[in-house]
Amino acid sequence: MSGPQCCSNPPTLDAGSGAGHVENLAGFNTYVSGSLQSKIAILLVPDVFGYEAPNLRKLADKVAAAGFYVVAPDFFYGEPYDADKPDRPIVEWLKDHGPAKGFEDAKLIVDALKSKGFSSIGAAGFCWGAKVVVELSKVPLIQAAVMLHPSFVTVDDMKSVKVPTAILGAEIDQRSPPELVKQFDEILKANSVDNFTKIFPKCSHGWSVRYDVNDPTAAGCANEAHKDMLEWFTKYLN
Hints:
The protein is an alpha/beta fold. About 40% of the residues lie in helices and about 20% in strands. It has an eight-stranded mixed sheet, with helices on both faces. β5, α5 and β6 form a beta-alpha-beta unit. The termini are far apart.
């Protein structure tokens, strides 16, 4: 079950943030950034705070600037997790917004991207979103995957991954501690799946999207993770 780290340091959501725009994709309100001319799409699957998180949208814009068409759908149907609602604790919230439902919804997004002519699709998942991405990687419906501070992902999940996968973990992470991330790495290597694994020292779960932009150290760590993610997609998507 999701722990306290998944819900800590919540962002201030802003529906108007980002240089892109929101449109309907496969029935989902979706933040979109980049050109349809790209033919290479990146699906960003958020943490429990959803697609209106400014840092997530900033990352979408950064990925789009590198030449990709980026989509970040509202997988939570207008109800991201809200720690200020004591009558709706994370355990109850997950009953309506579990990763299994997210995977089913993500398949619709991938189908919609393919119908737009995208020949290559990558997906990055943050916390909750990593579980959705690992499921996409098993089928596989995508060509490359990145998981950042994953939650819910298991050793058994990793045994079924079929696409090149990068795992970016935090040194301080109760959901996916370094020891577990190293197990993931060993499984991918044993199965001859191209992979890249990195543990970010002194970083905590959620650091890649839930960071203080005014904190140079935190922003620097997040930017390093973003760079690794971009390099992975650039290497495997064409």
